[in-house]
Write a structure and sequence with these properties.
With 422 residues, this protein is of the alpha/beta class. The chain has twelve helices and 20 strands. The chain folds into three domains: 244 residues, 3-Layer(aba) Sandwich (Carbamate kinase), CATH 3.40.1160.10; 66 residues, 2-Layer Sandwich (Alpha-Beta Plaits), CATH 3.30.70; 68 residues, ACT domain (Alpha-Beta Plaits), CATH 3.30.70. The structure holds aspartic acid and magnesium ion (MG).
Length: 422
């Protein structure tokens, strides 16, 4: 008998009919002789709606209370899904993250899982019960408060439970047939990847491919747990994410995909004195504000002034905190002013084959130039090139780069079954 962990995203459980269909799928997996643990997200756009609600009563709700509110979304879906399964005549129980043993640190809104103690799940499984677990939430070891793992965190719940229960596979069900070479909502000609390595998927997720949560891929890599990303709306095979792809590496595609991200903002610190310790002071301030920095660019200082500018990108949601933190150290650092820009988009080209194939940068920048897209910032890793462009140029840029690397397919195999991609 195998142990299967399945995760269903918000669009797969958007309404009563969807929930009944998912319940049937879970029951079929159980009937096939498997033990089944299911992690669910909140129904449809519930999480966004709850955030909107919170904002109507308070522009900056206390983080503890926001987590309390948001975790309610997953509680609704887990209970309703359990009811639908019970209705099909199967033993089933739902569990909150805390009941399932998901122990986190105490950082509200982006808590990290530090331990998983799934005793109650193992007990229920031993009795033949199907377990439904509320995704994206846990309980803090120190404060005992309820935490959330960050947007899209149910994937991470699923992989963490799969690892701790020693599951045979973790299936992530979503509203597309797997991981595509670009978001099919923007590039209808995007193609499905049958296999990806953790390394490639990590870069794709880090660069904004919303199909999987970044931490979930880190977790899977650490435990060498295969993830199968597939659609809950069809029976087709999706994308297997594994440590190593069998076969000749020369046969494997050079480029695995083009990711994009509209959730970043850009801050430029103008007129920073060019002496040791200034960058350290800036980034210490940002660390104190718990801000995650992505790209960083520093110019050569101007000879006349002995000053330089430092630009970095960060999640839009951290923008206010970052600006406030930097204002408080303005005097001690001695920079001149701050510039803030939310109207940016980031595009990233990712592929393990970049290491061994020259000319990738030339093709990439030519494609952007031909599309008339101006590049604001550039950063690279061994297997990635990222650029920041005007937000209004982003979709065009993604399509241009995707086509330039021959990733467009004729078949138009990408089907988006549901969801708003919000
Ligand atoms: N419901 C949460 C969100 O929308 C968590 C998840 O979907 O994984 O971000
Ligand atoms: Mg969701």
């Amino acid at each position: 008998m195998a142990l299967v962990v399945q995760k269903y995203g918000g669009s797969s459980v958007a309404d009563a009919d969807c929930i009944k269909r998912v319940a049937q799928r879970i029951v079929d997996t159980k009937k096939a002789g498997n033990d089944v643990v299911v992690v669910v997200s909140a129904m449809g756009d519930t999480t966004d709606d709850l955030i909107d609600l919170a904002q109507q009563v308070s522009p900056e709700p206390p983080a503890r209370e926001l987590d309390m509110l948001l975790t309610a979304g997953e509680r609704i879906s887990m209970a309703v899904l359990a009811m639908a399964i019970a209705d099909l005549g199967f033993e089933v129980k739902s569990f909150t993250g805390s009941q399932a043993g998901v122990i986190t640190d105490s950082v509200h809104g982006k808590a990290r899982i530090i331990d998983v103690t799934p005793g109650r799940l193992s007990g229920a499984l031993a009795e033949g019960t199907i377990c439904i677990v509320a995704g994206f939430q846990g309980v803090s070891q120190d404060t005992k408060d309820i935490t959330t793992l960050g947007r899209g965190g149910s994937d991470t719940t699923a992989v963490a439970l799969a690892a701790s229960l020693n599951a045979d596979v973790c299936e992530i069900y979503t509203d597309v047939d797997g991981v595509f070479s670009a978001d099919p909502r923007i590039v209808p000609a995007a193609s499905r990847r049958a296999f990806l390595t953790y390394e490639e998927m990590l870069e794709l997720a880090a660069q904004g491919a919303k199909v999987l949560h970044l931490r979930c891929v880190e977790y899977a890599r650490r435990f060498d747990l295969p993830i199968h990303v597939r659609s809950s709306f069809s029976l087709d095979e999706g994308t297997m994410i594994v440590g190593r792809i069998e076969g000749d590496p020369m046969e494997q595609p050079i480029i695995s995909g083009v990711a994009h991200d509209r959730t970043q903002a850009k801050i430029t610190v103008l007129g920073v004195p060019d002496r040791p310790g200034e960058a350290a002071a800036i980034f210490q301030s940002l660390a104190r504000s718990e801000v995650n920095i992505d790209m960083i660019v520093q110019n050569v200082s101007a000879v006349e002034t002995g000053r330089t500018d430092i630009t970095f990108t960060l999640p839009v949601s951290d923008g206010k905190a970052a600006l406030a933190g930097l204002e408080t150290v303005k005097g001690s650092i001695g920079f001149e002013s701050l510039q803030y820009d939310e109207k940016i988009g980031k595009l990233s080209l990712i592929g393990a084959g970049m290491r061994s194939h020259p000319g990738v940068s030339a093709t990439f920048f030519s494609a952007l130039a031909d599309a008339g897209v101006n590049v604001q910032l550039i950063s690279t890793s061994e297997i990635r090139i990222s650029v920041v462009v005007l937000e209004s140029d982003l979709d065009n840029a993604v399509r241009a780069v995707h086509a330039a690397f021959g990733l467009d397919t004729e078949s138009g195999e990408a089907v988006v079954y549901g969801g708003t991609g919000r």
